[in-house]
Amino acid sequence: MQNRGVYIHIPFCSVKCHYCSFYTVYYHRSGKSLEPYLDTLGEEIRLHSLNPDIHDRPIDSIYIGGGTPSLLKADSVETLLNTLRGYLPLVDLKELTIEINPEDGDQQKFREYRSLGINRVSIGVQSMQDKLLEISGRNHRRQEIHKTLLGLQQAGFENISVDLLLGMPGQTEEHLREDLKLLWDYPLRHISLYILTLEERSPWFHQEKKIEIAEDTVADLYGELVAGLNEKGFQQYEISNFAQPGFEGYHNAKYWNYDEYLGLGTAAYSFLGKERFNNFQSMTRYRKAVESGQIPIEKKEILSWEKQLAEFIFLSLRKTRDGLNIKQVNQLFQIDFLSRYEETLHRFLDLRLLFLKDQRLCLTPAGVLVSDSIFSEFMTV
Ligand code: SF4
Fold first, then answer.
1. Distance in Å, CA 17 to ligand 1 centroid
2. Is the dihedral of CA 46, 48, 51, 53 positive or negative?
3. 255, 275, 292 — which closes off a domain?
4. Residue to mutate, 14, 15, 18, 24, ligand 1, most ligand atoms under 8 Å from C-beta
5. pLDDT digits (tens, 9 = 90+) for 137-180
6. What CATH number is given to the structural domain containing 336?
7. Is the dihedral of CA 84, 88, 92, 93 positive or negative?
8. Where are the alpha helices (DSSP H) in 184-295?
9. Pocket of ligand 1, candidates 9, 10, 13, 164: which has the most ligand atoms within 8 Å of its Cβ, to mutate?
10. Looking at the structure, do residues 137 and 39 belong to the same domain, yes or no?
11. Residue 373: inside a domain, yes or no?
12. Is 334 left (phi over 0), alpha (psi -120 to 50) or beta?
């Protein structure tokens, strides 16, 4: 049995970025204390600890995401970590990540975070182009990104990850070349690359004049970035993720390896014992549930055997380097994968969107760009 991970959601943001579809709660930086939310989180952790099943295997990774977790003061993070240690079976933490907003370039806070055992930071850079940041509603600019990256470097962080967004309106290959050139001044270990999509809950989706995603050039933009990353020794190991050897995300790998994780806080997702559930996407309902002694679940799904198999396949295929281990899927689900999916497989192998090597099935670079369509075919077999 694999160890579990814990994800903690801090939903507060001082702006709503135009492309963002996450559940967020507006927070003015000089505004009210975040302590009441943290108290509720602490109580949610205590409620989970009453379930004997949560103690049946260790937790070895924590990811504090958002929202904007870097709004938290170091002593608040410390209290949260102590609560986790007090109630849940945390052992020998391999990775403790916090997401950092480039607006939060506070070096003193970064040093304090590090002294708490946080050993990985993930920064929502998105772009180094002020114009693109402005039109997408981000609050930070290139100058803040430099300050934050320098602050993290000086605070001694060795595992720094950066998020970049691809397909922003007006984004060009030249922008990306410049972005990478500027970013290589810092000792980055990991890059996450997200392709912009207009989700229904994002402000851009609802504005009258529809935003033009740079759709016809996304493949070129993607190619440009991948080439630039490979040149600097970053290997792609997952559809959206590139790392220098040994710096692949440990916590996030649990999602693709079909390992279990517990999500805490508003809108957080969990996968435990073949059940997926998510917490209330409403601060009021989340608080009310916890205050009345209930785990704040909004929706729960008990996964059928077929659903588990389909999820296992598409999550494995997301791992572009390791792919789907055919021996493993056959053993876990007692199937003969190659004959069960024969027709679908041949179609994608012939189109060179998938390839088979050493009993592993992987996406080709062309397959990565149409991966959603490939996954949906495996979901329907
Ligand atoms: S993209 Fe990040 S910072 Fe912007 S609104 Fe969404 S969660 Fe907040």
1. 6
2. negative
3. 255
4. 24
5. 999 999 999 999 999 999 999 999 999 999 998 899 899 999 99
6. 1.10.10.920
7. negative
8. 203-206, 215-231, 250-256, 283-291
9. 13
10. yes
11. yes
12. left
Peptide bond connecting 67 to the previous residue in cis, omega within 30 degrees of 0? yes
Same domain, 236 and 348: no
Residues 6+ apart with CB under 8 A from 347: 377
Residues 315, 220, single domain; the answer is no
Domain count, the chain: 2
DSSP-assigned letter for residue 154: H
From the CA of 163, how far away is ligand 1's center (Å)?
12
Phi-psi region of 167 (alpha: psi -120 to 50; beta: other; left: phi over 0): left
The DSSP 8-state label assigned to residue 135 in this structure reads: H
pLDDT in tens, 200-214: 878 887 776 667 766
pLDDT digits (tens, 9 = 90+) for 53-65: 999 999 999 999 9
pTM above 0.90, yes or no: yes
Query: Residue 206 in contact with residue 16, Cβ under 8 Å?
Result: no
Q: Are residues 356 and 218 in the same domain?
A: no
Domain boundary among 225, 255, 285: 255
Using the 8-state DSSP alphabet, how is residue 282 labeled?
A: S
The answer to whether residue 284 sits within a structural domain is no
Place of tokens 């039109």: 135
Return the CATH number at 95. Answer: 3.80.30.20
**Is-contact 5 261, C-beta < 8 A?**
yes
Q: 325 and 226 in one domain? A: no
Domain of 314 in residue numbering reads as 305-380
The dihedrals phi and psi of 339, each to the nearest 5 degrees, come to -85, -35
d(CA 372, CA 380): 13
| Residue 139 main-chain phi, psi, to 5 deg | -85, -20
Q: Are residues 160 and 39 in the same domain?
A: yes
Answer whether residue 182 is part of any domain: yes
Question: H/E element holding 269?
Answer: strand 269-272
Q: Which residues of the chain have pLDDT under 50?
A: none
Q: 128, 84 in Cβ contact below 8 A?
A: no
- The minimum-distance atom of ligand 1 relative to the CA of 67 is 7
Q: How far apart are CA 356 and CA 345, in angstroms?
A: 10
User: Residue 123 belongs to what H/E stretch?
Assistant: strand 120-126
